[in-house]
């Protein structure tokens, strides 16, 4: 039965054009993942690219990696030591890791990679903000010398934009323009790239020279389906094995979750709230009274129900509600009050025009956030702010909003972890995901104090004080918590959303690593 289905999948990809010139062999065990956009690059460190992250996690190592329980676990490094003063981290690398061209992976690759990230201010340079110097004393030892203690250094080093890259391939090249590496990367992971058929799919296959556990899948295909309804139907029809729960209509979700013969549902609440943020130099949103008006004018409960069917509950704080010991109930976001919102707009000097609007603005909307932003725009319409939605491809959104600050109001989500210090990237000066370009001296000082704190209690107190300033300045408004209710087809085993004790791989793999997946068909 399994072989027959794989053959049918191979035929499907021939007929639909998916897979381009590379087709899965009939005997392969193939797993098809639906994605709504393709990567900008296959270099995992050059830019922040959510569209490549699910893929590159399977291709490149980090010193440590984050598992799906949000814990840092060994990867290229087998262990590390920290000095008593917390100023020296010594990582011990495994000696049996090979690049796909046969070269050994050594500490020279680690030193090259991290120096390039810092020297060229690549996307997650901020991970190394507390690092004074780095050295590779021998092939399998790597040392960080810290300028000051950093309580979240290892978790951040295990997350985004810190994958180890091959020095012998990349040295002397520009990561941003090296298309040869982007299209045909030399990798060291459980899988390797087999084909990137631009606009259609990315295909990875098991790397038999990988040092670690061998994947049970032969091939994983990330097939690009830009239309969410089409993706959902392909999933229902068995053409795609996995899609994001986002593409399952909330009206259908309850019925699918109830069909326990064909599906099982995993749940996970991430510190990844959906939120709106402002251009603080904009003629309208540069005024804190206007930003406060928006806070009062957005009905977060309404957003939760209409945009997510209530599956993603409203957030009440300026940091993710997950961090219960750090949230400040005295500096919460205000509850919905449209009359108060309009009073603030009038206090800011606005009067309604003949159509009942105080002003109009453009809402820059990333694909995938359409429904979320539409409900917010409807809320703002009721308080006299007319928002026209400009829906952007993810890569265009990054260029327009994140890179060039060309927006009035926008929305995003994303992981604010792996611990509460992960929130600092959103609101410290120069933070990697500080889209608003918010900057306040007192906030930066508290973030630094939190980073150097010796205890969680001290760290949490600093973050609570930060929220007082965020409530005062309102550079963004967190709206709903990202709670995943994700149905998977019953034949999918080894899932990284399921604990090892229950037959999954949560403690061994990250959220999009497919090393331990297998299909029971």
Description of the structure:
The longest helix is centred in the last third of the chain and has 18 residues, at 456-473. A five-stranded mixed sheet has the order 13-12-14-11-15. It has 521 residues and is α+β, with helices and mostly antiparallel strands. The chain has three domains: 2-36 and 191-262 and 490-499 and 515-519, D-Maltodextrin-Binding Protein, domain 2 (3-Layer(aba) Sandwich); 38-189, Alpha-Beta Complex (Dipeptide-binding Protein, domain 1), CATH 3.90.76; 269-482, Dipeptide-binding Protein, Domain 3 (Dipeptide-binding Protein, domain 3). It contains 15 helices and 17 strands. 29% of the residues lie in helices and 21% in strands. Helix 9 packs antiparallel against helix 11 and helix 10 runs antiparallel to helix 12.
